[in-house]
Amino acid sequence: MDDFAIILARGKVIGHKRATFEGKSSFAVQLQRLNSKDAVEMLNIKMPDGVSVEEYATRYPRGSEIEFAIDAVAVESSLYFRFVRDLKADAPAPENRRPRTTDSKPVTA
Question: How far apart are CA 11 and CA 45, in angstroms?
Fold first, then answer.
């Protein structure tokens, strides 16, 4: 993905908006997060094309906590952030294991 590294973006969704990126109309998720100096900043993350605004609004509703891998692209002296993948969706699901009981007696017939 270009010359930029993958960046971790973790924060709270504060909105959804239509955006123009490289001359095409697209959709962005607005993310509020704390930077390294504990200041609040807002990132507009361009989502992949081909998915409706309603689907993103359902998948990432306002107020939800998200964790994305993103990359940065410089276009005409502006810096844009693009969605790479959803790290929470990629995380393995917790296993539903039952606790083992050690004091049970074997069943004899």
Answer: 12
Distances (CA, A) of 27 to 6, 64, 70: 20, 17, 15
DSSP characters over 61-80: -TT-EEEEEEEEEEETTEEE
pLDDT in tens, 55-95: 888 899 999 999 999 998 887 777 888 899 999 887 665 55
Distances (CA, A) of 50 to 30, 47, 63, 84, 105: 18, 9, 24, 15, 58
Spell out the domains of the chain, with CATH numbers in brackets: 7-88 (2.40.50.140)
Using a cut of 0.70, tell me whether the model's pTM lies above it. Answer: no
Cβ–Cβ under 8 Å, residues 66 and 41: no
Q: Cα dihedral sign for 77, 83, 84, 86?
A: positive
